[in-house]
């Protein structure tokens, strides 16, 4: 019986197969390690271990604007605006980095060696790729391509006063096109490759884009909506092996259609002088995948991008040209664009991959060939929490399947390391760590290439268990970030030596963060033991507002009496005594029930996601009732295993999810998790609708960062929600 339809989504591609190849000598070594791990700490604890004194990471500061509790980064008395003098914009930064690191490798791409299609038992076809090694271009070579593309864009007839849109998956040419536009002070509109037709038409028409850059596979999609696009004049497509540009052959169109290489050639033959922008120029109009209605275009200035880049560079330890970064998240998302901006500034090599080719067992990787992480061996990686959760679940299930001594050794080692991490900063990095890393965790780390030294996590809250797992099994600190498109990802970032969980660190040095009381929700800056309130971000990373949406801009962006710009996030947070922020709620997620009780949907969803049977969940509360319900995407592996254990017959996964006994089992398990998380009775779903198919960005039900789109889910499952309250 095959996987249910839809599990080929990019998240499901992160399968973890047999990662434990321990031989007999490995087992004996592990047994020896157990003895060492107990004796050595006892002998040396007095000398090397102990509680690290509390470090102050953020300090209160007096700022203008609405009254509240404001904090700045403890390491900087003044806000950071640029990484070094003379780089007011991303165009200046790109040019100077390319000069500084001219001969260093910069952008790497894997060529397709072989492509084939396999057919599953249910008749569906899946593409499988055999990819080669990374082929690299130096900083100097990339600068030449960027300059050529910038000139070619003008030679093609693009008006510099109009906008360019990029509608493509992440790849090296995406970044080259972006920087090429910047060299001619052209504003770039970014659009998710997974965006639906209505949102795509809205984004392109609203910004009056005249030149559209896309994957060749997007050409057919554009052809379908061609009559609805009012301003497009030029189409530039990235070449690939599919030859889908033939989709336009024979079609009468006023569009000029050119390949990316053709535009580069035009520019090389007819070079133009660069026209670098100012720091206040709009670099990017970034359309969010938003949870409600049509996407909003956030206007991001060059100064915003430079400020976040400068700030993050101070947080990642020893960042430099010896590092290698795997780029695979959508560049149309602020998290990935900010990360690649940092890598550019620090001279880091960027190897491009995709979620579907990331590991040796990813969906698009031909069996017996290597995934991106195995070939690239990155030292730096950005992830969203759903990816970490997927990796963690895969490792744990593999260990449990092994059973016996392997399972016992793993859990013993993990618990020893967990106790050390929780109990002592030095204990987290001491001699015992070296022993367990060598015997137990080294093999696990090959899942992510084996060289990972730092992980940047953002897009959604990361559970404490998953963060500890990465710290221990992958041996890497996790820099958990908090930011929004409206702050170009620049708000808070946890520091590498902070071993606490559930927090997002102090403010980045490019901004201040302030809590403003929200009396209606009961969150006050006067609360004890920690001040609480709505999170407001002010400083150089705060963007210029929403494109052609002054009403919404005025609602959430404010300028104080000192001229500082503030963004009201709608998130609720609290500041710990050391100046680190914890996100505890969101204003939009709070619903008042029939009898006056408040329920925080996001908080409940985060707690219930720990249930083994839950792949994804949306909690829904009707204010005219006194209980909540939930839509639950079932975990295929966990429910299939349960069904086999209890002897339930079923035809396929949708059939299993529809059975009353399955729904009862999941509901009971959710209730147990809720009680262990100390949720109130009104916060525990009284009824659920169990769904068999995952929510993916392609379905429009989750964002590119895998956060649920609440309004879209409510609309799609309106009838199911009504039945749950019937």
From TrEMBL:
Pfam families: AMP-binding. PROSITE patterns: AMP_BINDING. CDD domains: LC_FACS_euk1. It comes from Psophocarpus tetragonolobus. This is AMP-dependent synthetase/ligase domain-containing protein. Keywords: Membrane, Transmembrane, Transmembrane helix. It comes from the Eukaryota. The chain crosses the membrane at residues 27-49. One of its GO terms (cellular component) is membrane. Residues 129-547 form the AMP-dependent synthetase/ligase domain. InterPro entries: AMP-binding_CS, AMP-dep_synth/lig_dom, ANL_N_sf. SUPFAM superfamilies: Acetyl-CoA synthetase-like. GO terms for molecular function: long-chain fatty acid-CoA ligase activity. The keyword Kinase does not apply.
């Amino acid at each position: 019986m095959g996987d249910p339809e839809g599990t080929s989504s990019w998240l499901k591609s992160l399968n973890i197969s047999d990662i434990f190849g321990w031989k007999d000598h490995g087992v004996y070594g592990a047994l020896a390690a157990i003895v060492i791990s107990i004796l050595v700490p006892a002998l040396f604890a007095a000398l090397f271990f102990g509680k690290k004194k509390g470090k102050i990471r953020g300090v209160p500061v007096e700022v203008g604007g609405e009254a509240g509790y404001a904090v700045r980064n403890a390491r900087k008395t003044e806000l950071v605006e640029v990484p070094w003098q003379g780089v007011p914009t991303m165009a200046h930064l790109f040019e100077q980095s390319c000069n500084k690191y001219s001969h260093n490798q910069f952008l790497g791409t894997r060529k397709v060696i072989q492509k084939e299609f396999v057919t599953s038992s249910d008749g569906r076809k899946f593409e499988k790729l055999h990819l080669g090694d990374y082929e690299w271009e130096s900083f100097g070579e990339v600068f030449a391509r960027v300059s050529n593309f910038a000139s070619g864009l003008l030679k093609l007839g693009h008006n510099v006063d109009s906008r360019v849109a990029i509608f493509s998956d992440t790849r090296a040419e995406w970044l080259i096109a972006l920087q090429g536009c910047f060299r001619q002070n052209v504003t770039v509109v970014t659009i998710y490759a997974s965006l639906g037709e209505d949102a795509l038409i809205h984004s392109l028409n609203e910004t009056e884009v005249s030149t559209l850059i896309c994957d060749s596979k997007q050409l057919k999609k554009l052809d379908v909506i061609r009559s609805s696009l009012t301003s497009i004049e030029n189409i530039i497509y990235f070449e690939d092996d599919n030859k889908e540009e033939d989709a336009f052959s024979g079609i009468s169109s006023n569009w000029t259609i050119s390949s990316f290489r053709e535009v580069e050639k035009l520019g090389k033959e007819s070079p133009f002088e660069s026209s670098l922008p100012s720091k206040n120029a709009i670099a990017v109009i970034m359309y969010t995948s938003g949870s409600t209605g049509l996407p909003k275009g956030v206007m991001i200035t060059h100064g915003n991008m430079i400020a976040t880049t400068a700030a993050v560079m101070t947080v990642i330890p020893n960042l430099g040209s010896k590092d290698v970064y795997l780029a695979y998240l959508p560049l149309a998302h602020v998290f990935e664009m900010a990360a690649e901006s940092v890598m550019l500034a620090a001279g880091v090599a960027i190897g491009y991959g995709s979620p579907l080719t990331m590991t040796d067992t990813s969906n698009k990787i031909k069996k017996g060939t290597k995934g991106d992480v195995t070939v690239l061996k990155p030292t730096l990686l950005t992830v969203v929490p759903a990816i970490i959760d997927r990796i963690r679940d895969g490792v744990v299930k593999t260990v449990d399947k092994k059973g016996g001594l392997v399972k016992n050794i793993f859990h013993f080692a993990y618990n020893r390391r967990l106790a050390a991490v929780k109990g002592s900063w030095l204990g987290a990095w001491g001699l015992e760590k070296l022993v367990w890393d060598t015997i137990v965790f080294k093999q696990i780390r090959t899942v992510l290439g084996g060289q990972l030294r730092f992980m940047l996590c953002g897009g959604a809250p990361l559970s404490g268990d998953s963060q500890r797992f990465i710290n221990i099994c992958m041996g890497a600190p996790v820099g958990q970030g908090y930011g929004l498109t409206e702050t170009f990802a620049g708000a808070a970032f946890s520091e590498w030596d902070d071993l606490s969980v559930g927090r997002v660190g102090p403010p980045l040095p490019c901004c201040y963060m302030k809590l403003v009381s929200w009396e209606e929700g009961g969150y006050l800056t006067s609360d004890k033991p920690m001040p609480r309130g709505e999170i407001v971000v002010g400083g150089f990373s705060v963007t210029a507002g929403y494109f052609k949406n002054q009403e919404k801009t005025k609602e959430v962006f404010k300028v104080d009496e000192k001229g500082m710009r503030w963004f009201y996030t709608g998130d609720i947070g609290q500041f710990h005594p050391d100046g680190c922020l914890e996100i505890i709620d969101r204003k939009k997620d709070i619903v008042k029930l029939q009898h006056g009780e408040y329920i925080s949907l996001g908080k409940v969803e985060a707690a219930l996601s720990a249930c083994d049977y839950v792949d994804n969940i949306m909690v829904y509360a009707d204010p005219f009732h006194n209980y909540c319900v939930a839509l639950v995407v079932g975990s295929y592996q966990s429910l299939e295993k349960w069904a086999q254990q209890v002897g339930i017959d079923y035809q396929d996964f949708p059939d299993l999810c529809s059975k009353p006994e399955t729904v009862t089992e999941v509901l009971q398990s959710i209730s147990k998790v809720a009680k262990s998380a100390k949720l109130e009775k009104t916060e525990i779903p009284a009824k659920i609708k169990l769904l068999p198919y995952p929510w993916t960005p392609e379905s429009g039900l989750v964002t590119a960062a895998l956060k649920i789109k609440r309004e879209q889910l409510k609309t799609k499952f309106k009838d199911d929600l009504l039945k749950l309250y019937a």
